[in-house]
Design goal:
Shape of chain A: globular
Oligomer: homodimer
Largest interface: A-B, 35 and 35 residues
Number of helices of chain A: 15
Number of strands of chain A: 16
Structural class of chain A: alpha/beta
Radius of gyration of chain A: 21 Å
Chain lengths: 403, 403
């Protein structure tokens, strides 16, 4: 049982309670949060301008692509996709143990206790099974060719089974349907059925680019050329709203949604879906900026993630929310800052189905601590100053253990 | 005489020439840039994926405010201004030698060789006169009360004279008229006359906030309340276009311009003025984003600066242009990246009247070197990858001397 004391505790509870000169007691779980708590054997005051808050959660990554630095082509979604296809093998071959370690280390330094990983091959399993951070491992399916649907599905099933063997306190399994344009509806149904049976969370990319919008709506645009070139298959296989409806009665997070319209956002809310916002990735592929107001007005608590190093220069989640804070120039920085801290803690925890993301009794003791450069005069500005001045944390506890 | 060799040399000349496997020879000035140049005694190859480019120039700062971290109120221009007035003394008293050193050190690490400093009191002179970086020291005038115009002017003159005594290779003097809303037109004329006589560059804040727009256009809005509260004086003293016209036949940079209209931007071009863009500062005061397309369409080569720590969390100029790259979500990242590197080198040099900012024969040898994380497959992407992957530089040369 440890007691930590800090000048500021952000609980991220439903009231967004901030406790000045607060204390937290925990073992593997959080036991108590407040002021002047019971005495314990081990008590640590974290120092002047110290902050305690829930550890961060990076809901959506592709660590398989962590070898990319300057190889892939940024600035246009389809050009980027072409470059991914061209260089995929080279990137995968060059991302081995050291590469995964570095990626995880960068997240860890920034206070990330858990991440959602999209696995397209299953090869990353060996590198992630001993991760010091919690992993939600999304086995991904991709493929539209009806002739190979069965083969793809068998491979997918084998990967799901393999990953399920590793399930533990720190390793959870999920499934991923790559996107509405890249997976055959037969496969979608099969995968969603497994998720329902085994109660696995789902992630799917949705409306990331204008090309996707044009393709799914009208079978036109850049994706038409792309499909004709790569797969001959040149007809969209599902309507966007029909796609969303398939995920009814599951726990699904829709990644990106930059080009999702009002009706679709509304539908996502209707099925209790979540949205992941990856602002830097969207920017580097030049697809524009998600309308966060629209998402909020529909009552969806979005989360924020880095995406993979295939479309980002960093996996540091504080850098990502600082970027988000700067990029959404029409939103008030003080209130956006509050939302962004929620986005990478409690909202991300809900999306991944984890028992963390807030400092409340009974939650996993996934906690970070760090110091601000000086006293915050007006406590209302605390979330903003945390985002402006924090890049790496001092301590990170996962299930109550400092790592 | 030194020769440096690198995998990539960005000359920032008028053709935006990039030399692969290039070389540069310099002493205090640049002697030659190209490939396979003459032999010299001292030759250094900077290593795999190394880059040589002109050192950066931070055209607009307020180092007097460098003590601020979490004190001032962000999110609204007028609330911020109120907090500046309230805390000005505290901030100034707490920024002494160490504080200036830190501020300069942060710029230096990011590859800044020169900066424009707005000095409101002259007290910073003692801390800046031995700066390892080049300084363009803008003595600022502020004040609208006709009763004290003479006193303000005498104080200003004394500061100008004091700073002129320090003029050297690395220390240049300029003047600053705080803004169109805060300086009496009589003072403007006097100060502009001095600038003309002594050939000093000028900086002035212009159209930073919507409040300023409303005030100068109609004598209305938040500034009306602000002036009534603080100065009783509640009438705008000059029209925006008339203000810009005063700077004809000077070398003037207009800072911010977020709310400048087409006519004003056009007028700035007409008098050969420059524009400084401070995206992070504008964001933290929640005034919106400068329309860079409008600026470019009017043929103005803008520069980018950090502004002071009164409205930024960092003076690192690479971080600033990375933020700009992310924030301007409607501009193509690849082409914006090219412009942003120009903005902090050659464009900033022109604005400050310095003989650097590009690697060309006869220019001051103000040079930075650093390494990219990997080879850039497509050379067209070099500016983008430099901005994404560089935060601090390896070597910084000022007038040919490594510092």
């Amino acid at each position: 049982m440890i007691k930590l004391k800090a000048d500021y505790i952000l609980t991220m509870d439903s009231k967004y309670s901030i406790i000045e000169n607060g204390e937290i007691i925990f073992d593997k779980k959080i036991i108590e949060v407040g002021k002047n708590l019971q005495k314990t054997d081990k008590e640590i005051y974290l120092g002047k301008n110290s902050v305690i808050m829930p550890a961060l959660i990076n809901s959506h990554t592709h660590l398989e692509f962590s070898h990319n630095k300057t190889l892939l082509n940024y600035g246009d979604f389809i050009m980027w996709l072409d470059s991914v296809i061209e260089n995929r093998e080279e990137l995968f071959i060059n991302c081995k143990s050291e590469c995964y370690k570095k990626a995880i280390e960068e997240m860890k330094k920034s206070g990330v206790c858990a991440f959602g990983e999209i696995s397209s091959t299953g090869d990353d399993l060996r590198y992630l099974k001993h991760s010091p951070l919690k992993v939600v491992y999304f086995n991904e399916i991709i493929g539209t060719n009806p002739a190979v649907v069965d083969m793809l599905y068998q491979d997918f099933l084998a990967r799901v089974e393999e990953s399920l063997k590793l399930e533990s306190e720190k390793f959870k399994v999920g499934v991923s349907i790559h996107s509405a344009y890249s997976v055959h509806p037969i496969l979608m149904d099969k995968v969603i059925n497994i998720a329902k049976t085994k109660k696995l969370p789902i992630q799917t990319h949705f409306m990331e680019s204008k090309a996707e919008r044009n393709w799914l709506d009208k079978g036109e645009g850049e994706f038409k050329l792309f499909f004709e070139k790569n797969f001959k298959n040149a007809k969209p296989l599902i309507k966007p709203v029909e796609f969303i409806e398939k995920f009814k009665n599951t726990n699904t997070t829709f990644i990106h949604c930059v080009y999702a319209n009002e009706k679709e956002i509304n539908k996502i809310k209707e099925i209790d879906g979540y949205i992941s916002h990856c602002p830097v990735s969207n920017r580097l592929l030049n697809v524009g900026l998600l309308d966060l107001e629209k998402v909020k007005n529909n009552g969806i608590d979005y989360n924020v993630a880095t995406d993979g190093l295939s479309s980002n220069y960093s996996l540091n989640l504080f850098k990502e929310i600082r970027a988000a804070l700067l990029m959404h120039t029409t939103l008030h920085p003080k209130y956006l800052a509050k939302d962004l801290l929620k986005a990478v803690t409690i909202n991300a925890a809900k999306s991944l189905g984890l028992n963390n993301g807030s400092l409340e009794k009974g939650k996993d003791a996934d906690i970070i601590t760090f110091k601000l450069p000086s006293k915050v005069k007006n406590i209302e500005n605390l979330p903003l100053h945390i985002i402006l001045h924090t890049t790496n944390v001092e301590k990170l506890f996962v299930n109550g253990k400092e790592i």
